[in-house]
Amino acid sequence: MRELELVLHATFADVARATEHLRDHLPAWLAGDARHAVELALAEVLTNIVEHGYHGGALEDIRVRLLDRPGGLEVDVCDRGRPIPDGRLEQADETTFLFDPTDIAGLPEGGMGLALIKAAFDEVRYASHDGLNQLHLVLRFR
What gap in Å lies between CA 4 and CA 134, rounded to an integer? Predict the structure, then answer.
């Protein structure tokens, strides 16, 4: 079992550094398209926190724990920014990607990042209580 814990400021510069560090610590069994999907999803999680939770950046902490277990990969992300609006995560699913890319007016305005995160992981749980947002992601070993 391997574990990595990171604490970063809610800034885009720290997100870039943290994403690179997380990518380097993903388990070896995670390869190909699945690896790329997880990398992108983790970058999206952190970027969303900075952009939406902290309105573009703050010197507040984001805590990330990556745990490679025998059954798969677990990621916990905690912050104290603005929470995900009620129902937004539940609404994001694979239908978010069903749009005509040639219809500019019909392109979705948001929610694609959450759908991407849900598509990359087998389990996505989110809770916000007493100002603490907790996102728990699980990808089972295949």
Answer: 17
